[in-house]
Amino acid sequence: MKAYSLDFREKIVKAHLAEKISIRKVATRFGVSKSLVQKLVKQEQTEGNLQPKPRGKPQFSHLENAEAEVKSLVAAHPDATLVELCELLAAQTGNWVSQTAMCRYLQKLGLNRKKKLGTVAKPLQKEYRT
Predict the structure, then answer these.
(1) Taking the mean position of all CA atoms in its chain, how far away is CA 83?
(2) What's the predicted TM-score (pTM) here?
(3) SS3 sequence of the chain
(4) Contact 32, 15 (CB under 8 A)
(5) Where does the pLDDT of residue 43 fall: very low under 50, low under 70, confident under 90, or very high at 90 and above?
């Protein structure tokens, strides 16, 4: 769900503070929840603005500043699996990352993780029924 517009937020707070209407009546008047009105009034009083806050948790990864280390690990161990790369990075930097994070970072760097087949494929054998 999108955040309410700044204009709408200002109308809600103005109705409560300037017009001296109760929080419940303001909520009913604008079709919002009582807790939203309380939250907006509190935000106006403490922060002085009604800007919507960013949604979700901030994303952090130990790989953000480890581009050189990851590239050197992939160059030194071209056939390493994602698990092995995670373990090598943890041993080198002391920061453990998940397989998913490592895979996404390798894709972001454009490093190919496709393994090369070292053996010749066996010919298919036909099954004969008797």
Answers:
(1) 21
(2) 0.48
(3) CCCCCHHHHHHHHHHHHCCCCCHHHHHHHHCCCHHHHHHHHHHHHHHCCCCCCCCCCCCCCCCCCCHHHHHHHHHHCCCCCHHHHHHHHHHHHCCCCCHHHHHHHHHHHCCCCCCCCCCCCCCCCCCCCC
(4) no
(5) very high
Q: What is the identity of the amino acid at 44? A: E
Phi, psi for residue 36 in degrees, rounded to 5: -65, -45
What are the two backbone dihedrals, phi and then psi, of residue 60, each rounded to the nearest 5 degrees? Answer: -135, 140
* Cβ(29)–Cβ(19) below 8 Å: no
Instruction: Check whether 129 has a pLDDT greater than 80.
Output: no
Residue 95 has a pLDDT of: 87
- Token reading at 43: 């935000």
| Residue range 47-90, pLDDT digits in tens | 999 998 888 877 777 788 888 898 999 889 888 888 999 999 99
d(CA 23, CA 9): 13
